[in-house]
Automatic annotation (TrEMBL):
Top-level taxonomy: Eukaryota, Fungi, Dikarya, Basidiomycota, Agaricomycotina
Domain of life: Eukaryota
Protein name per Swiss-Prot or TrEMBL: Acetyltransferase (GNAT) domain containing protein
Recorded GO MF terms: acyltransferase activity, transferring groups other than amino-acyl groups
Positions of the N-acetyltransferase domain: 74-243
Pfam families per UniProt: Acetyltransf_3
Cited InterPro entries: Acyl_CoA_acyltransferase, GNAT_dom
Organism name: Lyophyllum shimeji
């Protein structure tokens, strides 16, 4: 018997793997990460069309980095699934602190699928993004600590989102659809997400366009945010408040 707590995830009847189907791209699904994905990560992360816009992955990206990333995201996915399994006798859908699916895949006619990207919505740990623009390091740390301590379901929790899709799938609207689907099908109803603060390097019009199409607004630019590959990069901060919810008081105005 299927666990009703997985709703609205579907379950692959052949493998038992849960997945979320995109609203507008029916052949694109989001699944838990798989061990086999690690063989693909280095080539993706060493592609300049990808790493140019990502600040955190190491460069060059190795098989060891891939295994470490997989272990991290697999643990998060498994933790969410474990919580859902533990609550399967409950008649009410519970809130969970993470999403069990994040690997974006294209389904083929023969029933197989291929890995094409990644998307994750998680609790923000970035005090620099949550605090006002003029906050000092202690204030930023305080914001991060307070956000980590908020109980699940608190509408004041600041969440964040990160994603990428392989270049051959750029320009098809897939990531806009993936964020919209994950946000409204899982993050809002199953994680209690009401506020998101996200970011992209200044000039990354692809990612910024995905945010804007999903109702995010630019609140500020953090100059010289990080040095990557010998270049200091400015960061565009984008924020989303659930329609009808009270806006976060720490949000800066767009002209700051």
């Amino acid at each position: 018997m299927a666990n009703s707590q997985l709703y609205p995830l579907e379950v692959n009847p052949r493998t038992g793997e849960p997945f979320l189907r995109l609203k507008n791209h029916k052949t694109i699904i989001i699944t838990p990460p798989r061990q086999e994905d690690t063989a693909l990560y280095p080539a993706i992360m060493n592609d300049p069309r990808i790493y140019e816009w990502l600040g955190s992955p190491p460069s060059p990206y190795t098989a060891d980095h891939a295994e470490a990333w997989y272990a991290r995201v697999k643990a998060t996915s498994d933790g969410a699934l474990k919580d859902l399994e533990a609550a399967q006798e409950s008649s009410d859908l519970i809130l969970v602190g993470d999403c069990p699916v994040r690997a974006i895949r294209e389904m083929k006619e023969d029933g197989t699928d291929i890995f094409i990207g990644d998307i994750g919505i998680m609790r923000s740990a970035g005090g620099k993004l949550m605090a006002p623009a003029d906050a000092d390091d202690d204030q930023k740390a305080k914001h991060a600590e307070e956000n980590a301590a908020r109980k699940l379901g608190d509408p004041k929790i600041a969440w964040t989102v990160g994603y990428y899709i392989i270049p051959s799938y750029h320009g098809r609207g897939i990531m806009t659809d993936a964020l919209q689907t994950l946000l409204w099908e899982w993050a809002v109803p199953r994680m209690g997400v009401r506020y998101i603060v996200a970011s992209a390097f200044e000039g990354n019009e692809g990612s910024l366009g995905v945010f804007r199409k999903n109702g995010f607004v630019q609140t500020r630019i953090i100059e010289n945010h990080i040095e990557t590959r010998g270049q200091w990069r400015n960061l565009t901060v984008m924020e989303w408040n659930m329609p009808g919810a009270e806006a976060r008081p720490n949000s800066d105005s767009p002209d700051q």
